[in-house]
Write a structure and sequence with these properties.
Nucleoside Triphosphate Pyrophosphohydrolase; 2 domains; disordered C terminus; binds iron/sulfur cluster
Amino acid sequence: MNAWVSAPATIQNVGSGEIFTPAQIKHFRHNLLAWYEAHARDLPWRRMRDPYAIWVSEIMLQQTRVNAVLDHYARFMARFPTVQKLAEAEEPEVLAIWSGLGYYRRARMMHRAARVISNELKGHLPRTAAGLRRLPGIGAYTSAAIASIAFGDPVAVVDGNVERVVLRVRPRNSGIQAVAQVLLDPMRPGDFNQAMMELGATVCLPRNPLCLHCPVQKLCNTRGEHPVAPRKESVRKRVGHALVRRGERVLLEQRAQDASLMAGMWELPQLDGTLPGPERLLFTISHSITVTNYSVDIFRLRADEVHLLPEGGRRKWISVDDLAEIPLTGLARKVLKRLQVFKPPVSGGPLQR
Ligand code: SF4
């Protein structure tokens, strides 16, 4: 029998009749925070309370794994160490540093918000979740994370990881946000929120939760038996791109400004139905964007064969030395890195020109 079931009813009602006792809540907070202190991963944005740095990390971590964020975070902070520096930058510069992280709308909105903070808020981020939510690109999750971690605002964060923990822990159906809010430790909201996210990311895993290592196991209602939502079906597609070089320059094509994905970013010229012969095929590479898995054929064309490319599209010859300054799509970066044409700047230091 777990601690929820054996405990006497009453005390904390959540939504439509959820019941926690103060002892259960105290136990949950204590165990979770003790576990977090012992097991938290040492991540750069956890070593400080700078609201700007926390904001950058939280935006980067949306739908992106920690390991993929670390290098980008270091480079971004080296280039734009303050909200003022970010506000002063031009958008292509911001997208270039963001390149490879995907979901570029995040970078555009963050840049826009930095300008609002700089121009209208004297360079200071709002100190509450409610105030932060008024900024472009900051929703319920991000505002709660920044406000609780940087300013101690007692608002529960509910991201995908926290949602899973709450779904499994709660004794009966009730609002996830409401349950998370009741469990939140108001004395240490930032640590508590990070602990919940960490628990979901490292222990309460979607398919095989490590319940034996879980600090709140005794209070968990399901111990991992809660069904997980089925994954979206993935789609397969095959596309072709051309690598065209002229000495130390490479031909790139800009995506339309109204494209639904990666608008305005630069990529290798797309090929339509008529592909060059197989003798021109350099390699095929796999690339995933949301639920679509692409097989991408990369063909080499000579500089005097650009007329073979489909009409339309804004194209430009870019020096290989300037590639780090261009907002490249993730696929273009991947291909150019594989060909050793593009070398990303060293993490944590200034951009190598
Ligand atoms: S006991 Fe298992 S299912 Fe429950 S919260 Fe812990 S890891 Fe998740």
